[in-house]
Specification:
Region (Disordered): 61-81
Radius of gyration: 17 Å
Shape: flat
Distance between the termini: 33 Å
Structural class: mainly alpha
Number of helices: 3
Largest sheet: none
Number of strands: 0
Oligomer: single chain
Number of domains: 2
Strand content: under 5%
Biased composition (Pro residues): 72-81
């Protein structure tokens, strides 16, 4: 997975490794890292999602998968018909 961004956009105006915030990695980011990402926060805000609720849902889903029990269900959203 490529996570390289310069201050001038992806690949635009790249001046070298000192300009890279994230490096190339094959590891997945941690849930809290993803939920703290500014772009993820913008998308969640646009979709009327609370980061704490998304985190809770993801943790409960992971626990359910590990234990073999059903995961949580989401309440109907007034924003998505």
């Amino acid at each position: 997975m490529l996570h390289a961004m310069s201050d001038h956009g992806p690949c635009g105006g790249f001046r070298g490794f000192e300009d890279v915030r994230w490096a190339v990695s094959t590891a997945e980011p941690k849930l809290d890292e993803m939920l703290a990402d500014p772009m993820v926060r913008l998308v969640m805000r646009r979709d009327h999602l609370d980061p704490a609720e998304v985190r809770r849902f993801m943790v409960e889903t992971a626990e359910g998968l590990k234990s073999g029990r059903p995961g949580p269900t989401l309440p109907p959203s007034p924003h998505f018909g």
